[in-house]
């Protein structure tokens, strides 16, 4: 099989950053399924892992968003059989999806939406799992309690990114008033099209922006941008007994006592936690992806794929990493699989 990856960390403008090599097709055992990958997408985790690649001479395959067809199943698999069309985000501790065939645990895989092609379907798994877990697991929003959530507010910092794009929709689905941050005309239009009730500019102080729209405090905050940049401001604008979740690492030490008087909570969301630690509830990712597939097929949720880079090649992958690192990507960047 063909696989695209790298041998050592390098800046995104490095010529020959990624290489295509031939490898043996792995064998499915246990609860693993072998997927013929037909669509992939990129996420910030890809360039973060690339930048941190150890200089050990080993070939590293990135990619944690995929859709494809089950080729073979391990002896303990009960959820799938060869020929099934699936989607998943995978496991950051294992080889990624920038390859023709990939092994993945069945418990973090689900049938893909019938209404989407493989590349479009690949745009959603990682960001959907991240947004879903942040809202409904970490911040404990009841997605089925629209009446109880009416009047409550969710602020999505970085609304036009991959996670923000799906979080806006999930927040609206739960009955929340959703405020998204965006700063360019095209990103403002994007988040409005996804259902944001209000849009504020994250280039300005968020407290001033919120006061200008008559909402000085918010009940929930999902930060998809720099935690270090926004921590103190989030502590200021969160409502008493509110909840904050972030998906980005903090490089600095922050004063969590800023949250004490408000009895506010702060949590991290990392969608690879379940697969990384083989938690007893790993199968929850299978369930939530299956639910989201139904919502996509019903037209309740919109796909967030925004730009296709065609067939996956070393050069098209490098260009996608460059666009992601620029911070100018809107929605998700997708690819067809590696050509035979």
TrEMBL record:
SMART domains: PKS_ER (SM00829). Residues 10-335 form the Enoyl reductase (ER) domain. PROSITE patterns: QOR_ZETA_CRYSTAL. Pfam families: ADH_N, ADH_zinc_N_2. Keywords: Cytoplasm, Metal-binding, NADP, Oxidoreductase, RNA-binding, Zinc. One of its GO terms (molecular function) is zinc ion binding. Homotetramer. Belongs to the zinc-containing alcohol dehydrogenase family. Quinone oxidoreductase subfamily. PANTHER family: QUINONE OXIDOREDUCTASE. This is Zinc-type alcohol dehydrogenase-like protein. It comes from Thalassospira xianhensis MCCC 1A02616.
